[in-house]
């Protein structure tokens, strides 16, 4: 099975002029936006560096291990990007990274000049390993727009204003895919014309009421949504737009990692539908959420993440480093919650388990078992 790393070898010697930009290229730029560009890529849209130079500086950074998602995987990915004619000749600028617990925001984006002919790709970073980043994802279930969505719209409008004669594609992985759709949907009309394509790689959807708006219908045909066979994040909320299912070399939740997705020479290897495990999670969450009002959703999410951050953990890595101490701190914090919050939390949790049980029974009656490997 071949993945993006193989694609970088196959197509790496072909420039965008020789072989047109495609869905895999968009996924690669979306994934590259996760790299730690601080002190390397300028926030100024017009202050470009080549991807080759950026990769060299990243590989020479003594702190690279602290800033990437997976050191071994990212090191090889960065090395391959820098060695690839197709990507190394692209230029990058406009890097911003805004994560703040108080404002409950995790937002990052950058801009790529893909061919030197005023064709640009805006990549919105998805959820990183910060706990507040994941909380903002779950806030989408009861809050609209979340702070990162507002920032994404402003970022897109600023980028288009900076390159008035350019054409733009926008894309992102995980929450970044949602931000791509939101920014293109709700940007001012005068900024929408230059947007040609919107790429969403396993990103959450929206409520149905949002997707019935004139703004969404205006750009719906420009959206390209991709999810792996086992998708959790990408199945959150609703998707009225068509989406393509991609095979992955990983299993379970690890299929969320774009670098595991299977590719051919010109695109992803598509499958007919998501697997039984993904459908089970999707039906369970939708059944559960349909029985909760916004206040119940907000209280449950706030309680979960307050417990996770009770020991001053800011990232998932920190949360897992001292698991015993963290669990003890969570228990103490839970015991100190007021009675009303405890009752609400328990009630909502029971509804989640009830939804899972009901969906499992329905699947069993239909003869649809959940894959034990998912």
Tell me about this structure:
The chain is of the alpha/beta class. The protein folds into two domains: 4-274, Rossmann fold (3-Layer(aba) Sandwich); 281-366, no CATH class. Helices cover 47% and strands 14% of the residues. The chain has 17 helices and nine strands. Strands 1-2-3-4-5-6-7-8-9 form a nine-stranded mixed β-sheet, with helices on both faces. It is globular and about 60 Å long. The mean pLDDT is 87.
| CATH class descriptor of the largest domain | Alpha Beta
What's the N-to-C terminus distance? 19 Å
Q: Give the percentage of residues in beta strands.
A: 5-15%
Give the mean pLDDT: 87
Assign the CATH topology of the largest domain.
Rossmann fold
What's the arrangement of secondary structure elements?
Layout: H1 4-10, H2 23-32, E1 49-50, H3 51-59, H4 64-67, H5 71-83, H6 85-88, E2 91-100, E3 105-113, E4 119-124, H7 131-139, H8 147-162, E5 167-173, H9 175-186, H10 189-192, E6 195-201, H11 208-211, H12 214-219, E7 223-228, E8 243-246, E9 270-271, H13 276-290, H14 294-308, H15 316-321, H16 323-335, H17 339-366
Parallel strand pairs: 4-5, 5-6, 6-7, 7-8
Antiparallel strand pairs: 1-2, 2-3, 3-4, 8-9
């Amino acid at each position: 099975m071949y993945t993006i790393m193989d694609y970088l070898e196959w197509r790496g010697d072909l420039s965008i002029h020789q072989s047109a930009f495609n869905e895999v290229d968009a996924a690669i730029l979306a994934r590259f936006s996760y790299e730690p560009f601080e002190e390397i890529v300028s926030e100024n849209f017009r202050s470009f560096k080549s991807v080759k130079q950026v990769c060299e500086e990243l590989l020479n950074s003594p702190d690279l291990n602290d800033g990437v998602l997976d050191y071994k995987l990212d090191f090889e990915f960065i090395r391959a990007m820098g060695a690839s004619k197709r990507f190394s000749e692209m230029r990058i600028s406009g890097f911003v990274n805004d994560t703040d617990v108080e404002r409950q925001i995790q937002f990052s984006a950058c801009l790529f000049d893909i061919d030197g002919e005023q064709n640009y790709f805006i990549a919105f970073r998805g959820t990183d390993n910060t706990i507040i980043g994941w909380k903002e994802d779950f806030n989408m279930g009861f809050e609209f727009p979340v702070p990162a969505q507002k920032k994404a719209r402003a970022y897109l409008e600023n980028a288009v204003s900076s390159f008035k004669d350019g054409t733009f594609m926008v894309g992102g992985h995980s929450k970044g895919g949602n931000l791509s759709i939101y920014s293109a949907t709700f940007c001012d009309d005068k900024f929408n014309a230059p947007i040609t394509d919107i790429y969403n790689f396993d990103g959450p959807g929206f409520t149905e009421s949002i997707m019935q708006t004139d703004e969404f219908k205006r750009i719906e045909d420009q959206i390209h949504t991709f999810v792996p066979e086992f998708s959790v994040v990408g199945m959150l909320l609703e998707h009225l737009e068509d989406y393509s299912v991609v095979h992955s070399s990983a299993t379970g939740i690890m299929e969320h990692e774009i670098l595991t997705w299977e590719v051919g020479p010109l695109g992803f290897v598509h499958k007919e539908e998501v697997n039984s495990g993904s459908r089970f999670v999707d039906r369970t969450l939708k059944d559960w959420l349909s029985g909760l009002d916004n206040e119940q959703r907000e209280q449950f999410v706030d309680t979960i993440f307050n417990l996770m951050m009770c020991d001053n953990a800011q990232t998932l890595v920190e949360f897992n480093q001292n698991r015993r101490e963290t669990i003890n701190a969570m228990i103490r914090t839970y015991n100190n919650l007021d009675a009303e919050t405890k009752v609400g939390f328990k009630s909502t949790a029971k509804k989640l388990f009830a939804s899972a049980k009901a969906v499992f029974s329905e699947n069993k009656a239909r003869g649809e078992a959940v894959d034990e490997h998912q």
